[in-house]
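pipeline stage [seq->struct] | target=Arabinan endo-1,5-alpha-L-arabinosidase | organism=Streptomyces triticirhizae | residues=521
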Amino acid sequence: MPALRALAAALSLAAPLLLPATSLANPAPAHPTPVDTTAVAPAAVDLTTAEAGNPFVDGWYADPDIVVYDDRYWVFPTTSRGYDEQTFMDAFSSTDLVHWTRHERVLDIADISWARRALWAPAPIERDGRYYLYFGANDIQSDDELGGIGVAVADRPEGPYRDAVGAPLIDAFHNGAQPIDQDVFLDDDGQAYLYYGGHGHANVVRLNEDMTSLGQFEDGSTFREITPENYTEGSFMFRRDGTYYLMWSEGGWTGPDYSVSYAMSDSPTGPFERIDRVLEQDQAVARGSGHNSVVNVPGTDIWYVFYHRRPLSETDGNHRALAYDRMYFNPDGTIQPIEMLVRDNFDDDNAIGWRAWGEGGWTAADGGYTGAAPGGLSTQDTAFGDLDYAADITLATAEAEAGLAFRATQLGSGAERFDGYHATLTTDRLTLARVTGGESVELTSAPVELAPGETVRLRVTAVGDRLAVHLGDQAEPSLTATDAEHTTGANGLRTAGPDGADGALATFDNVAIGDPEGADG
Protein backbone atom coordinates (compact mmCIF):
# COMPACT_ATOMS: atom_id res chain seq x y z
CA MET A 1 0.00 0.00 0.00
CA PRO A 2 2.39 2.72 -1.14
CA ALA A 3 1.84 6.21 0.21
CA LEU A 4 1.50 8.77 -2.56
CA ARG A 5 2.73 11.96 -0.99
CA ALA A 6 3.05 15.40 -2.51
CA LEU A 7 6.66 15.51 -1.52
CA ALA A 8 7.42 12.16 -3.14
CA ALA A 9 5.16 11.98 -6.20
CA ALA A 10 6.34 13.23 -9.55
CA LEU A 11 2.82 13.94 -10.68
CA SER A 12 -0.12 14.69 -8.50
CA LEU A 13 -4.18 16.20 -5.82
CA ALA A 14 -14.08 32.34 11.48
CA ALA A 15 -13.78 33.71 14.57
CA PRO A 16 -17.15 33.29 16.11
CA LEU A 17 -17.83 31.97 12.63
CA LEU A 18 -16.43 28.56 13.55
CA LEU A 19 -18.53 26.09 15.51
CA PRO A 20 -17.06 23.92 18.24
CA ALA A 21 -15.00 20.98 17.07
CA THR A 22 -17.79 18.57 17.94
CA SER A 23 -20.29 20.10 15.54
CA LEU A 24 -19.24 18.74 12.15
CA ALA A 25 -22.17 18.04 9.88
CA ASN A 26 -21.29 14.34 10.02
CA PRO A 27 -19.18 13.85 13.16
CA ALA A 28 -17.29 10.61 13.57
CA PRO A 29 -18.16 8.42 16.53
CA ALA A 30 -15.79 8.34 19.48
CA HIS A 31 -14.43 5.01 18.19
CA PRO A 32 -14.83 5.23 14.39
CA THR A 33 -15.01 2.07 12.40
CA PRO A 34 -11.98 1.40 10.19
CA VAL A 35 -12.10 3.12 6.82
CA ASP A 36 -12.04 0.88 3.77
CA THR A 37 -9.47 2.74 1.70
CA THR A 38 -8.87 0.11 -0.97
CA ALA A 39 -11.90 0.67 -3.18
CA VAL A 40 -11.90 4.44 -3.57
CA ALA A 41 -9.85 6.83 -5.66
CA PRO A 42 -9.23 10.53 -5.05
CA ALA A 43 -10.89 12.73 -7.60
CA ALA A 44 -8.48 14.38 -10.03
CA VAL A 45 -10.08 17.74 -9.34
CA ASP A 46 -8.62 21.09 -10.29
CA LEU A 47 -9.97 23.58 -7.75
CA THR A 48 -8.94 27.20 -7.41
CA THR A 49 -9.19 26.87 -3.64
CA ALA A 50 -11.42 25.05 -1.16
CA GLU A 51 -14.41 25.67 -3.42
CA ALA A 52 -16.75 24.36 -0.72
CA GLY A 53 -15.36 26.92 1.69
CA ASN A 54 -12.43 27.65 3.98
CA PRO A 55 -12.07 26.65 6.78
CA PHE A 56 -12.63 23.22 5.26
CA VAL A 57 -13.24 21.50 8.61
CA ASP A 58 -14.82 22.74 11.82
CA GLY A 59 -12.96 23.59 14.99
CA TRP A 60 -9.64 25.07 16.08
CA TYR A 61 -6.73 23.19 14.48
CA ALA A 62 -3.25 24.09 13.25
CA ASP A 63 -0.10 22.74 11.55
CA PRO A 64 -1.86 20.47 9.02
CA ASP A 65 0.17 17.79 7.27
CA ILE A 66 -1.53 16.12 4.31
CA VAL A 67 -0.71 12.74 2.79
CA VAL A 68 -2.36 10.30 0.38
CA TYR A 69 -2.86 6.76 1.68
CA ASP A 70 -4.54 4.15 -0.49
CA ASP A 71 -6.16 6.81 -2.68
CA ARG A 72 -7.62 8.78 0.22
CA TYR A 73 -6.43 12.17 1.40
CA TRP A 74 -5.53 12.36 5.10
CA VAL A 75 -4.91 15.56 7.07
CA PHE A 76 -3.21 15.32 10.46
CA PRO A 77 -3.28 18.62 12.40
CA THR A 78 -2.39 19.92 15.84
CA THR A 79 -5.35 20.34 18.18
CA SER A 80 -5.09 24.09 18.70
CA ARG A 81 -5.54 24.63 22.43
CA GLY A 82 -3.42 25.76 25.36
CA TYR A 83 -0.24 23.71 25.69
CA ASP A 84 -1.56 21.80 28.70
CA GLU A 85 -4.68 20.89 26.73
CA GLN A 86 -2.80 19.74 23.62
CA THR A 87 -2.87 16.10 24.66
CA PHE A 88 -4.40 14.36 21.63
CA MET A 89 -4.61 14.55 17.85
CA ASP A 90 -7.53 14.11 15.48
CA ALA A 91 -7.26 13.36 11.76
CA PHE A 92 -9.50 14.06 8.76
CA SER A 93 -9.89 12.03 5.58
CA SER A 94 -11.52 12.67 2.20
CA THR A 95 -11.73 11.16 -1.26
CA ASP A 96 -12.52 14.45 -3.01
CA LEU A 97 -11.13 17.32 -0.86
CA VAL A 98 -14.74 18.39 -0.28
CA HIS A 99 -16.35 15.93 2.14
CA TRP A 100 -14.21 15.29 5.22
CA THR A 101 -14.57 12.63 7.92
CA ARG A 102 -13.18 13.31 11.39
CA HIS A 103 -11.22 10.51 13.09
CA GLU A 104 -10.98 11.35 16.78
CA ARG A 105 -7.91 10.88 18.96
CA VAL A 106 -5.78 8.97 16.49
CA LEU A 107 -2.91 9.72 18.88
CA ASP A 108 -3.37 10.29 22.61
CA ILE A 109 -0.80 11.36 25.16
CA ALA A 110 -1.97 8.47 27.36
CA ASP A 111 -0.14 6.18 24.93
CA ILE A 112 3.16 8.09 25.15
CA SER A 113 4.86 7.41 28.47
CA TRP A 114 7.26 10.34 28.34
CA ALA A 115 4.89 13.04 26.97
CA ARG A 116 2.76 15.31 29.15
CA ARG A 117 1.75 18.39 27.10
CA ALA A 118 2.20 20.35 23.86
CA LEU A 119 1.51 17.46 21.49
CA TRP A 120 1.82 19.08 18.07
CA ALA A 121 2.87 19.18 14.41
CA PRO A 122 2.11 15.59 13.33
CA ALA A 123 4.01 14.30 10.30
CA PRO A 124 2.57 11.13 8.69
CA ILE A 125 4.12 8.60 6.33
CA GLU A 126 3.58 4.95 5.30
CA ARG A 127 6.30 2.40 4.70
CA ASP A 128 6.05 -1.34 4.16
CA GLY A 129 2.43 -1.43 5.28
CA ARG A 130 3.04 0.41 8.58
CA TYR A 131 1.83 3.93 9.25
CA TYR A 132 4.17 6.26 11.12
CA LEU A 133 3.26 9.53 12.81
CA TYR A 134 6.06 11.80 14.01
CA PHE A 135 5.14 14.37 16.63
CA GLY A 136 6.56 16.93 19.02
CA ALA A 137 5.79 16.90 22.73
CA ASN A 138 6.51 18.88 25.91
CA ASP A 139 7.94 21.98 24.12
CA ILE A 140 11.33 21.60 25.77
CA GLN A 141 13.40 24.76 26.16
CA SER A 142 16.70 23.12 27.14
CA ASP A 143 18.51 19.78 27.12
CA ASP A 144 17.69 19.40 30.80
CA GLU A 145 14.00 18.79 30.05
CA LEU A 146 12.37 15.56 28.90
CA GLY A 147 10.68 15.82 25.52
CA GLY A 148 11.31 16.52 21.87
CA ILE A 149 10.34 14.59 18.74
CA GLY A 150 8.74 11.16 18.98
CA VAL A 151 7.35 8.60 16.58
CA ALA A 152 4.20 6.50 16.84
CA VAL A 153 3.10 3.63 14.63
CA ALA A 154 -0.21 2.04 13.58
CA ASP A 155 -1.52 -0.68 11.29
CA ARG A 156 -4.02 1.60 9.58
CA PRO A 157 -4.12 5.32 8.69
CA GLU A 158 -6.67 6.26 11.35
CA GLY A 159 -4.72 4.55 14.12
CA PRO A 160 -4.73 4.18 16.99
CA TYR A 161 -1.04 5.16 16.97
CA ARG A 162 1.24 3.85 19.72
CA ASP A 163 4.65 5.10 20.79
CA ALA A 164 7.16 3.13 18.72
CA VAL A 165 10.29 3.82 20.79
CA GLY A 166 9.26 4.53 24.38
CA ALA A 167 11.36 7.70 24.40
CA PRO A 168 11.92 10.74 22.19
CA LEU A 169 13.63 10.04 18.89
CA ILE A 170 15.32 13.45 19.15
CA ASP A 171 15.50 14.76 22.71
CA ALA A 172 18.00 17.64 22.67
CA PHE A 173 19.01 20.83 20.88
CA HIS A 174 21.49 20.23 18.05
CA ASN A 175 22.93 23.12 16.07
CA GLY A 176 20.64 25.38 18.11
CA ALA A 177 17.47 23.76 16.72
CA GLN A 178 14.64 23.13 19.14
CA PRO A 179 13.32 19.58 18.49
CA ILE A 180 9.84 20.53 17.21
CA ASP A 181 7.86 20.93 13.97
CA GLN A 182 9.12 17.82 12.22
CA ASP A 183 8.39 16.75 8.67
CA VAL A 184 9.18 13.35 7.18
CA PHE A 185 10.11 12.82 3.53
CA LEU A 186 10.73 9.55 1.67
CA ASP A 187 12.85 10.07 -1.42
CA ASP A 188 12.60 8.04 -4.61
CA ASP A 189 15.72 6.04 -3.71
CA GLY A 190 14.08 4.81 -0.49
CA GLN A 191 16.03 7.07 1.86
CA ALA A 192 13.86 8.77 4.46
CA TYR A 193 14.67 12.15 5.98
CA LEU A 194 13.33 14.08 8.95
CA TYR A 195 13.37 17.89 8.75
CA TYR A 196 12.73 19.85 11.93
CA GLY A 197 13.60 22.82 14.05
CA GLY A 198 12.54 25.81 16.08
CA HIS A 199 14.27 28.78 17.72
CA GLY A 200 15.42 29.94 14.29
CA HIS A 201 17.44 26.83 13.36
CA ALA A 202 16.61 23.91 11.06
CA ASN A 203 18.20 20.46 10.85
CA VAL A 204 17.82 17.41 8.64
CA VAL A 205 18.54 13.85 9.77
CA ARG A 206 18.47 10.55 7.95
CA LEU A 207 16.07 7.87 9.15
CA ASN A 208 17.01 4.22 9.01
CA GLU A 209 14.76 1.86 7.10
CA ASP A 210 12.96 0.92 10.32
CA MET A 211 11.73 4.58 10.47
CA THR A 212 12.25 4.60 14.24
CA SER A 213 16.00 5.23 14.51
CA LEU A 214 18.42 7.83 13.19
CA GLY A 215 21.02 7.11 10.55
CA GLN A 216 24.20 8.93 9.60
CA PHE A 217 25.38 10.98 6.67
CA GLU A 218 28.43 10.00 4.62
CA ASP A 219 30.69 12.08 6.88
CA GLY A 220 29.55 10.22 9.98
CA SER A 221 27.38 13.06 11.31
CA THR A 222 23.76 12.65 12.44
CA PHE A 223 22.43 16.22 12.51
CA ARG A 224 23.02 18.52 9.54
CA GLU A 225 22.03 22.17 9.83
CA ILE A 226 20.16 23.56 6.80
CA THR A 227 18.85 26.85 8.25
CA PRO A 228 17.74 29.21 5.47
CA GLU A 229 17.39 32.97 5.85
CA ASN A 230 14.47 34.10 8.06
CA TYR A 231 13.70 30.57 9.25
CA THR A 232 11.53 30.34 12.37
CA GLU A 233 9.93 26.86 12.40
CA GLY A 234 7.56 24.58 10.49
CA SER A 235 9.82 22.78 7.96
CA PHE A 236 8.20 20.97 5.04
CA MET A 237 9.88 19.15 2.15
CA PHE A 238 8.50 18.01 -1.21
CA ARG A 239 9.88 17.12 -4.62
CA ARG A 240 8.64 18.15 -8.05
CA ASP A 241 10.30 17.41 -11.41
CA GLY A 242 13.53 16.42 -9.70
CA THR A 243 13.77 19.61 -7.63
CA TYR A 244 13.59 19.60 -3.82
CA TYR A 245 11.53 22.34 -2.19
CA LEU A 246 12.00 23.27 1.46
CA MET A 247 9.21 25.39 2.90
CA TRP A 248 9.11 26.93 6.39
CA SER A 249 7.30 29.46 8.53
CA GLU A 250 8.55 32.92 9.40
CA GLY A 251 7.43 35.38 12.08
CA GLY A 252 5.62 34.72 15.35
CA TRP A 253 2.95 32.01 15.43
CA THR A 254 0.48 34.23 17.32
CA GLY A 255 1.07 37.28 15.16
CA PRO A 256 -0.23 38.54 11.82
CA ASP A 257 3.28 38.26 10.31
CA TYR A 258 3.28 34.46 10.42
CA SER A 259 3.94 33.41 6.83
CA VAL A 260 5.51 30.81 4.53
CA SER A 261 8.71 31.05 2.48
CA TYR A 262 10.62 28.50 0.44
CA ALA A 263 13.91 27.44 -1.14
CA MET A 264 14.85 25.08 -3.97
CA SER A 265 17.74 22.65 -4.30
CA ASP A 266 18.92 19.71 -6.38
CA SER A 267 19.61 17.76 -3.17
CA PRO A 268 17.33 16.77 -0.28
CA THR A 269 19.95 18.13 2.14
CA GLY A 270 20.46 21.49 0.46
CA PRO A 271 21.97 23.98 0.47
CA PHE A 272 18.69 25.91 0.76
CA GLU A 273 18.75 29.61 -0.11
CA ARG A 274 15.58 31.55 0.52
CA ILE A 275 13.80 32.50 -2.71
CA ASP A 276 10.64 34.29 -1.63
CA ARG A 277 7.66 34.47 0.68
CA VAL A 278 4.69 32.76 -0.99
CA LEU A 279 1.90 32.77 1.62
CA GLU A 280 1.08 35.56 4.05
CA GLN A 281 -1.84 37.33 5.69
CA ASP A 282 -4.49 39.05 3.62
CA GLN A 283 -6.09 41.82 5.67
CA ALA A 284 -9.39 41.18 3.87
CA VAL A 285 -9.41 37.41 4.46
CA ALA A 286 -7.30 36.08 7.37
CA ARG A 287 -4.16 36.65 9.41
CA GLY A 288 -1.26 34.51 10.55
CA SER A 289 -1.25 32.07 7.64
CA GLY A 290 1.55 29.56 8.08
CA HIS A 291 2.87 26.13 9.08
CA ASN A 292 1.97 24.47 5.83
CA SER A 293 2.16 21.21 3.96
CA VAL A 294 1.68 20.45 0.26
CA VAL A 295 -0.15 17.74 -1.67
CA ASN A 296 0.01 16.71 -5.33
CA VAL A 297 -3.12 15.20 -6.89
CA PRO A 298 -1.96 11.76 -8.07
CA GLY A 299 -1.67 11.53 -11.83
CA THR A 300 -1.69 15.31 -12.41
CA ASP A 301 0.44 18.38 -11.91
CA ILE A 302 -2.20 19.90 -9.60
CA TRP A 303 -0.85 21.04 -6.24
CA TYR A 304 -2.44 22.44 -3.10
CA VAL A 305 -1.00 24.08 -0.03
CA PHE A 306 -2.62 23.22 3.31
CA TYR A 307 -2.04 25.62 6.19
CA HIS A 308 -3.64 27.24 9.21
CA ARG A 309 -4.75 30.83 9.60
CA ARG A 310 -6.51 33.05 12.11
CA PRO A 311 -9.94 34.58 11.35
CA LEU A 312 -9.85 38.36 11.30
CA SER A 313 -11.98 38.93 14.38
CA GLU A 314 -10.07 36.42 16.53
CA THR A 315 -7.32 37.54 18.92
CA ASP A 316 -6.76 34.30 20.85
CA GLY A 317 -3.50 32.80 19.64
CA ASN A 318 -4.96 29.29 19.66
CA HIS A 319 -7.93 30.19 17.49
CA ARG A 320 -6.49 28.83 14.28
CA ALA A 321 -8.42 27.15 11.47
CA LEU A 322 -7.46 24.84 8.60
CA ALA A 323 -7.54 26.02 5.00
CA TYR A 324 -6.16 25.10 1.61
CA ASP A 325 -5.60 26.92 -1.66
CA ARG A 326 -4.24 26.07 -5.08
CA MET A 327 -0.47 26.35 -5.60
CA TYR A 328 0.93 27.19 -9.04
CA PHE A 329 4.46 27.02 -10.44
CA ASN A 330 6.23 29.24 -12.94
CA PRO A 331 7.97 27.64 -15.96
CA ASP A 332 11.31 27.81 -14.12
CA GLY A 333 9.87 25.85 -11.19
CA THR A 334 9.54 28.76 -8.77
CA ILE A 335 6.29 29.03 -6.83
CA GLN A 336 3.81 31.79 -7.57
CA PRO A 337 2.46 33.84 -4.63
CA ILE A 338 -0.51 31.97 -3.13
CA GLU A 339 -3.80 33.84 -2.99
CA MET A 340 -6.26 33.06 -0.20
CA LEU A 341 -9.45 32.98 -2.23
CA VAL A 342 -12.94 33.21 -0.74
CA ARG A 343 -15.34 30.74 -2.32
CA ASP A 344 -18.26 28.61 -1.12
CA ASN A 345 -20.41 26.36 -3.32
CA PHE A 346 -21.81 24.50 -0.28
CA ASP A 347 -21.10 21.15 -1.93
CA ASP A 348 -19.99 19.88 1.48
CA ASP A 349 -23.48 20.67 2.81
CA ASN A 350 -22.16 22.75 5.69
CA ALA A 351 -21.77 26.45 6.41
CA ILE A 352 -18.46 26.41 8.28
CA GLY A 353 -17.14 29.97 8.21
CA TRP A 354 -20.58 31.63 8.14
CA ARG A 355 -22.38 33.25 11.06
CA ALA A 356 -26.12 33.93 11.11
CA TRP A 357 -27.70 37.09 12.54
CA GLY A 358 -31.39 37.66 13.11
CA GLU A 359 -34.37 35.42 13.64
CA GLY A 360 -34.40 33.59 10.33
CA GLY A 361 -32.89 30.13 10.08
CA TRP A 362 -30.07 29.16 7.70
CA THR A 363 -29.49 25.65 6.38
CA ALA A 364 -26.71 24.27 4.16
CA ALA A 365 -28.02 21.25 2.24
CA ASP A 366 -28.22 19.83 -1.27
CA GLY A 367 -25.36 22.04 -2.45
CA GLY A 368 -26.95 25.35 -1.43
CA TYR A 369 -27.43 27.69 1.54
CA THR A 370 -31.04 28.56 2.31
CA GLY A 371 -32.35 31.42 4.42
CA ALA A 372 -35.77 31.01 6.01
CA ALA A 373 -38.48 33.34 7.29
CA PRO A 374 -38.73 35.81 8.82
CA GLY A 375 -35.33 36.67 7.34
CA GLY A 376 -31.90 37.72 8.46
CA LEU A 377 -28.23 37.98 7.61
CA SER A 378 -25.35 35.47 7.41
CA THR A 379 -21.78 36.75 7.10
CA GLN A 380 -18.23 35.59 6.62
CA ASP A 381 -15.37 36.99 8.71
CA THR A 382 -13.91 39.17 5.96
CA ALA A 383 -13.05 42.84 5.60
CA PHE A 384 -13.19 43.80 1.93
CA GLY A 385 -13.18 47.41 0.76
CA ASP A 386 -12.82 47.31 -3.01
CA LEU A 387 -14.44 44.07 -4.09
CA ASP A 388 -16.06 41.90 -6.72
CA TYR A 389 -18.74 39.81 -5.01
CA ALA A 390 -21.18 37.38 -6.62
CA ALA A 391 -23.58 34.55 -5.82
CA ASP A 392 -26.34 32.56 -7.47
CA ILE A 393 -29.73 33.36 -5.92
CA THR A 394 -33.00 31.47 -6.18
CA LEU A 395 -36.09 33.12 -4.70
CA ALA A 396 -38.40 30.57 -3.11
CA THR A 397 -41.63 32.60 -3.22
CA ALA A 398 -43.09 35.59 -5.03
CA GLU A 399 -43.00 37.64 -1.78
CA ALA A 400 -39.39 36.90 -0.81
CA GLU A 401 -36.38 39.14 -1.19
CA ALA A 402 -32.72 38.15 -1.10
CA GLY A 403 -29.36 39.62 -1.92
CA LEU A 404 -25.75 40.42 -1.08
CA ALA A 405 -24.58 42.53 1.84
CA PHE A 406 -21.12 44.08 1.62
CA ARG A 407 -18.83 46.39 3.57
CA ALA A 408 -20.91 45.23 6.53
CA THR A 409 -20.08 46.43 10.06
CA GLN A 410 -22.02 46.70 13.34
CA LEU A 411 -23.10 43.11 12.82
CA GLY A 412 -26.24 42.13 14.69
CA SER A 413 -27.48 45.71 15.07
CA GLY A 414 -30.71 47.36 13.94
CA ALA A 415 -33.48 46.03 11.76
CA GLU A 416 -30.99 44.99 9.07
CA ARG A 417 -28.48 43.51 11.57
CA PHE A 418 -25.62 45.53 10.05
CA ASP A 419 -24.43 48.82 8.63
CA GLY A 420 -23.08 48.89 5.08
CA TYR A 421 -24.67 48.22 1.68
CA HIS A 422 -26.88 45.58 0.14
CA ALA A 423 -28.01 44.67 -3.37
CA THR A 424 -31.37 42.92 -3.13
CA LEU A 425 -33.65 41.08 -5.56
CA THR A 426 -37.39 40.52 -5.53
CA THR A 427 -39.35 38.97 -8.38
CA ASP A 428 -39.98 42.44 -9.84
CA ARG A 429 -37.22 44.75 -8.59
CA LEU A 430 -33.46 45.07 -8.06
CA THR A 431 -32.40 47.54 -5.37
CA LEU A 432 -29.09 48.97 -4.16
CA ALA A 433 -29.32 50.40 -0.65
CA ARG A 434 -27.17 51.94 2.06
CA VAL A 435 -27.71 50.79 5.65
CA THR A 436 -27.00 53.25 8.45
CA GLY A 437 -28.02 52.70 12.04
CA GLY A 438 -29.35 49.32 10.95
CA GLU A 439 -31.96 50.89 8.64
CA SER A 440 -31.96 50.78 4.81
CA VAL A 441 -32.07 53.81 2.52
CA GLU A 442 -32.48 53.12 -1.19
CA LEU A 443 -29.75 54.52 -3.44
CA THR A 444 -31.17 53.29 -6.74
CA SER A 445 -33.37 50.55 -8.19
CA ALA A 446 -34.65 49.10 -11.46
CA PRO A 447 -37.48 46.75 -12.53
CA VAL A 448 -36.74 43.08 -13.23
CA GLU A 449 -38.79 40.02 -14.11
CA LEU A 450 -38.02 36.87 -12.15
CA ALA A 451 -40.10 33.84 -11.31
CA PRO A 452 -39.93 31.94 -8.02
CA GLY A 453 -37.55 29.04 -8.48
CA GLU A 454 -35.56 30.84 -11.18
CA THR A 455 -31.83 31.11 -10.45
CA VAL A 456 -29.94 34.26 -11.35
CA ARG A 457 -26.39 35.40 -10.65
CA LEU A 458 -26.15 38.67 -8.74
CA ARG A 459 -22.82 40.49 -8.74
CA VAL A 460 -21.64 43.60 -6.94
CA THR A 461 -18.47 45.58 -7.64
CA ALA A 462 -17.25 48.37 -5.41
CA VAL A 463 -14.19 50.54 -6.01
CA GLY A 464 -13.88 53.47 -3.66
CA ASP A 465 -17.21 55.29 -3.72
CA ARG A 466 -18.31 53.73 -7.03
CA LEU A 467 -20.84 50.92 -6.59
CA ALA A 468 -22.28 48.75 -9.37
CA VAL A 469 -24.70 45.83 -9.52
CA HIS A 470 -24.76 43.30 -12.37
CA LEU A 471 -27.56 40.84 -13.01
CA GLY A 472 -26.93 37.60 -14.85
CA ASP A 473 -24.34 37.77 -17.62
CA GLN A 474 -25.01 41.39 -18.54
CA ALA A 475 -21.81 43.25 -19.43
CA GLU A 476 -23.16 46.61 -18.32
CA PRO A 477 -24.31 47.10 -14.73
CA SER A 478 -28.01 47.19 -14.00
CA LEU A 479 -27.48 49.70 -11.21
CA THR A 480 -24.77 52.22 -10.35
CA ALA A 481 -24.37 54.67 -7.51
CA THR A 482 -21.76 56.86 -5.87
CA ASP A 483 -21.60 56.69 -2.09
CA ALA A 484 -18.68 56.96 0.32
CA GLU A 485 -20.29 56.35 3.71
CA HIS A 486 -19.03 52.77 4.19
CA THR A 487 -15.52 51.81 3.14
CA THR A 488 -14.82 48.26 4.34
CA GLY A 489 -16.44 45.34 6.12
CA ALA A 490 -17.70 41.78 5.92
CA ASN A 491 -19.55 40.15 3.05
CA GLY A 492 -22.91 38.55 3.74
CA LEU A 493 -26.12 37.03 2.40
CA ARG A 494 -29.44 38.68 3.19
CA THR A 495 -33.05 37.44 3.16
CA ALA A 496 -36.37 39.00 4.10
CA GLY A 497 -40.02 38.10 3.82
CA PRO A 498 -43.44 39.63 4.47
CA ASP A 499 -44.97 39.63 7.93
CA GLY A 500 -46.18 36.19 8.81
CA ALA A 501 -44.05 34.47 6.18
CA ASP A 502 -43.04 30.91 6.93
CA GLY A 503 -40.51 28.56 5.38
CA ALA A 504 -37.67 29.09 2.91
CA LEU A 505 -37.15 32.52 1.38
CA ALA A 506 -34.13 32.03 -0.91
CA THR A 507 -31.23 29.72 -1.63
CA PHE A 508 -27.67 30.89 -2.39
CA ASP A 509 -24.90 29.07 -4.21
CA ASN A 510 -21.45 29.57 -5.76
CA VAL A 511 -20.43 32.49 -3.56
CA ALA A 512 -17.22 34.19 -4.70
CA ILE A 513 -15.58 37.34 -3.41
CA GLY A 514 -12.26 38.99 -4.15
CA ASP A 515 -10.63 42.13 -5.41
CA PRO A 516 -12.17 43.76 -8.50
CA GLU A 517 -9.45 42.44 -10.80
CA GLY A 518 -9.07 38.95 -9.34
CA ALA A 519 -12.54 37.66 -8.46
CA ASP A 520 -14.48 35.55 -10.91
CA GLY A 521 -18.23 35.73 -11.00
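stage status: PASS
auto-comment: The radius of gyration is 24 Å. The mean pLDDT is 92.
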